[in-house]
Amino acid sequence: MAPVEIKDDYYDILGVSNTATIEIITSSYRRLALDRHPDKNPNNPGATAAFQLLSCAYQTIKDPDKRRAYDKEWPNIKRTQTAQKEAKRRQEEFAEAERKKAAEDNAKKQKEKCAREERLRHLERLRSKYDGDIFELRRVVRRLEADTKRLQDQDNEELRKERERNSWWAYVTSPFYAPQKETEEEKQTREVERLQRLASKRIKEQDLAEKKAKLQGWEDALKDTNNKIAADKAKEEEEARLQAAKMQEKLRRAKEARRRAEEEAAEEERRKRWEEAQARKQREEAQARKQREEAQARMRQEQAARAAREAREAREAQEAWEEQMRAWRAAEERRKAEEDRKAEERRKTEEKRKQEEKQKAEAEKRARAASWAETARKPPKARNEWFDSEVPYHSPFRGSGPSKTSSACRHEMFWPKLNGSHTCQNCHGIQRRFAFQCPGCNMIACAGCRQSLRGERRRRRRSRDL
């Protein structure tokens, strides 16, 4: 199983330097353990993990072997921790700057919003005032217009009556309808009323013109106020839209940042897994190489032991073989001596036998010569019988008398072959390679004597004669 990769700076956790002695480390551990014990920090959810990490750091550093192995990896861990702290510090500074900027922007926006709301409230109050004043002024204008119209109607009615009194119809009908003449006082009264109406009309018309001008100004001011309110509302809506767009952009950027962070984290995780896999592979390769070297060393030792054993066995086998060869040579020498002795005995026996056979053959020759001489003295019929006797075909005494071979054995069976050097018992010739032996009488003969003794040549001659 591969060892767990350590990523924490145990010296920093214990609050000591990497050159601290075990006494300093133990003292610092006991002090920190009292401070960070979970029982003394019940409201801290991470107290247990921190205390366990402190215990793991102390258990690693106090063991010389584990500390020596950790010190080999400590520079890389220190650099990694320093880089992580620097990155975290930069991130915190950037986050703090962003928070300050966001707070300032929010305060500025809040101030602008308050000013805009106050301005809108002022414009709303101004519009309400303009609306009320315009309503009242319009009511006054309508009253003045009604009064002016009433006075104008009175003047028109007065003019109509005056035209009727001064018309030709009134002149024509005056004899028949005598009109009532008005007095001077009535005329003066009617003139005074007319002048009063005219003055009142002029005053009212002047006041109406002033009121209309004032109404037009107030309507223009109300329109301008409405435009300002609409512009402020449009600006507010535009700012809200821009704020929403900025918020969406911020959310998009945050989402993109999270996605990039997740991708970077995934890439970092893949890189760490790859590095762990490479480290595990290197450890496995080193272990496999070590096992191969150990196996090769064992194999070499086994081969050396096997070679020594085989050499010992070969030496023992060589010694046994040499012993066997010596025994075999001794036995072979004894056998050769015995064979030489037997061969010498056979040679002597053979010489003796040959001598006896030679003497016997000379005796037989003499006997045949005597028999031939005796037969020569006999009549021709007896000589023809002698030629038909069993004398070997190649014998020098054929036709010179009867042969010794005319025994009870007819030599008609199959003669087996005898390999080796033999002497023909019929012609006394020495056969170097092979000879034949009659199974009936054990007679040894050469090939020609065998044919003669079996009567093969005689039968062939008779068959030719026939």
Automatic annotation (TrEMBL):
Residue ranges, annotated region (Disordered): 231-383
- Report biased composition (Basic and acidic residues) as residue ranges: 231-251, 259-367
Keywords in alphabetical order: Coiled coil
The J domain sits at 9-74
Single Gene Ontology BP annotation = protein refolding
Domain of life of the native organism: Eukaryota
Molecular function via GO: unfolded protein binding
**SUPFAM superfamilies with a match to the protein in the record:** Chaperone J-domain
Q: Which Gene3D superfamilies match?
A: DnaJ domain
The UniProt entry's coiled-coil ranges are 80-154
A cellular component annotation (GO) from this entry:
cytoplasm
Q: What name has this protein been given in UniProt?
A: DnaJ-domain-containing protein
